[in-house]
User: What shape does this take?
Amino acid sequence: MRIAEVAERSGLTVSAIRYYEKSGLCPPISRGPDGKRQFNATDLDWLTLLSSLRETGMTLSDMRAFATLYRGGDETIPERKSALLKHRDSLAIRQAQLDRRHDILNRKLKKYQEIIGESP
Amino acid sequence: MRIAEVAERSGLTVSAIRYYEKSGLCPPISRGPDGKRQFNATDLDWLTLLSSLRETGMTLSDMRAFATLYRGGDETIPERKSALLKHRDSLAIRQAQLDRRHDILNRKLKKYQEIIGESP
DNA sequence: TACCGACCTCGAGCAGCTTTAGGTCAAGCC
DNA sequence: GGCTTGACCTAAAGCTGCTCGAGGTCGGTA
Assistant: This one.
């Protein structure tokens, strides 16, 4: 699979994928005879998970820790699970915060509405 | 009002407030005889709104544009309203995205659960 | 009087990419 | 065959939005 396709499917950008590889977030991707990266399904899955973690606010350094666990094989699953649980909690907090901020925006919009007096 | 109090109430950090003033996101805050910033209620309101916009993903440059409109007085309210509407839409999209990512995390957790076989 | 805590400025540092410059290679067209 | 196009490559600099550290000024208090 070409890098452009992986980018589209994982939700990362091409640059971000290269950056992630360079900084050790994913194992070195195998190369074709022309030096181009050739991704397999496992690479795609991993990058998609990384994309989810990143988009939900995990830092690269936490992701690196998670990647290290991953390389440790199945016996690190309980640790990985608790890392994800912790992250899911912080995501829930963040989502609640966004909801509140959303409300504030709505109230502000309502005020503007009252001032200019058009239909919503 | 002291800067520490404004920080706590608005949700910004002390450094961020100073940074926002320096980069023209809020009008110059009045100073006491000792050179310290003295915030009034209007300053607090504005910074709280900025905080909401920022936390929901608006860029500083968009916030600057919004601040410029604000300085233009009441006749810019329709423009401000449409800016906020647009931003609220993009926030909703972002929230939906987060929900999907949240689901992905949950599925991954479920898999781990099945592998290690404990109670959820 | 000497220290503490809260503020100040300015400049450097940091995360997490993105952009740019300069290059390789295969495929498609004339 | 030669030329262009487009997708990829690397390394390095640039960007955003702060944060942190150094070094300094106050007012209050033991």
